[in-house]
Amino acid sequence: MTQKIIVKGKVTGKALKSNQPINFLGTIDKKTGEIIDKKHDLYGKKIKDSILVFPNGIGSSVGAYTIYSIKSNNVSPLAMVCQKVDLTVASGCALANIPLFILEPDEYDKIKDGDEISLG
Amino acid sequence: MELTREEEKSLNGEHGESLQTAYRILSAVGEATDAEKLVPIHWAHVSGVNYNTIGDAGEEFLANLSKNAKFKVRTTVNPMGYDKDSVEKFGLDENFIQKQESIRKSYGKMGMTPSFSCIPYEIYDLPGEDTQVSFAESNAAIYANSIGHLKTNKESAFSALASAITGKSPYSDLRKDNSPSMSISMKVQDPNELTFGLLGYFAGKVADKSVAISGVKNLDKRCNKSLCASMGTSGSCGKFVLDDNSNASEKVDFDENEMQNVFDELNTADSGDLITLGSPQLGLEEMTDLAVMLKGRSFKKRCLIFCPRTIQEQARSLGYAGQLESAGCELMSDCCTCLTPLVTKKDVDSVTTNSIKGAYYFKNSNGLDVNLKPLSEIVSDETS
């Protein structure tokens, strides 16, 4: 079911699913792991210990540091699942060692927010 | 992705920890983008210089990395958090200044060219057509591909840093060839730089890796930069081509309605307590142009202008910096509108700017309201 494993890992957890792409810089508070963009569909949610499922990363190249920071600050998700890859999420997860999976479209669509899922 | 024996050794840590880290990043990016190999790059431009954006974790990472890592190719750097010459005017705390200094030193140890600019394409000569570079700053990557005829992916802070240390990047996506799969038809009449900013933000949301734009002829510097910066903010698209005859399969219109939608998303105030110009930082052409527009006029409120240090020096020797200051502008170098720690809720509620990119981050990162206007209106409304 996994199309690609960008950063390896074995995880089980609750899906926190967004229908919107994420610009990690400006959308996520790097100290608390909270979604702070009022226009985002996950506004107010905390990503800590979730399996963060979202279409793809967008925007700032510095978002990679946000991904590294949330890991260092112990507020990171257990893993990330995307529909398509972008360099910011791939490199941020690689450095932070956060498992990153790209799923086939039908598998991606099957995941519902709040589902318990296992990957890896 | 195939690695050479030497690259493989580096990935396994045989050439030290920092090279291993760099190759780990390049491998992940290579896998992600289906690259078959790494290719040499000739210039890296890294982001992740401003303490306001990378924080303590970033500062510590760079301090650690710089113990061993050295840049292998010319590496220019993005703006940092402040201009040393005027830092005392803004009441930043000692911790911020200390951490920012540490970041500057780390990049210095690794061998940066201290540009502290998001417009490297305006302050350095560009290498020949199709030269592979690695630009992280999103407006610079899009500019390099679309106008500078260079080749880069829309790199992340880490992928460009890894390229700076290794001199290599995965050969994929825009580095190879990427014909646009979408064409956007520009239907808005009499566009100015704000219109192109709104178009870029729209394009970034709907397009994939590259996009064709029809109905647009020659763009001036200000419009080009506005388009590049906003496109980089809203999406992952890294290139545009102006082409009225694109054979892209998907066609989309950008009309008054679409423009209004983007405007309403980003414009949240009718006026600003402060004006900022320069996200991306202003180049010499924009500075001289502005000096002419401001002749005999003076700003009624504070107006911050962000530009690279070399540009400020040139503008000063040509007399334009003095003219801008006489009109009430404060010139700031080494830092940028975008993600600045210098404009906060403590002092102002809203900001007037012509930058879509600036607006996005003022809203989301600084928590401020934004009043968007083209430069011509800013000058007519805010000066007397």
The general outline of chain A is globular
Strand order of the largest sheet of chain A: 1-5-4-3-2-6
- The total beta strand count of chain B reads 14
Counted up, domains of chain A total 1
For the secondary structure, the number of strands of chain A is 6
Order of helices and strands of chain A: EEHEHEHEHE
CATH classification class of chain A: Alpha Beta
End-to-end separation of chain A in angstroms reads 10 Å
CATH superfamily of the largest domain in chain B: Aconitase, domain 3
Strand order across the largest sheet of chain B: 12-11-10-13-14
Radius of gyration of chain B: 21 Å
Largest sheet of chain B: 5 strands, parallel
Strand content of chain A: 15-25%
Order of helices and strands of chain B: HHEEHEHHEHHEEHEHEEHEHEHHEEHEH
Please give the CATH architecture of chain A: 3-Layer(bba) Sandwich
CATH superfamily of chain A: Phosphohistidine domain
Classified by CATH, the class of the largest domain in chain B is Alpha Beta
Mean pLDDT metric of chain B = 97
Query: What percent of residues of chain A adopt helix (DSSP H or I)?
Result: 25-40%
Distance between the termini of chain B: 61 Å
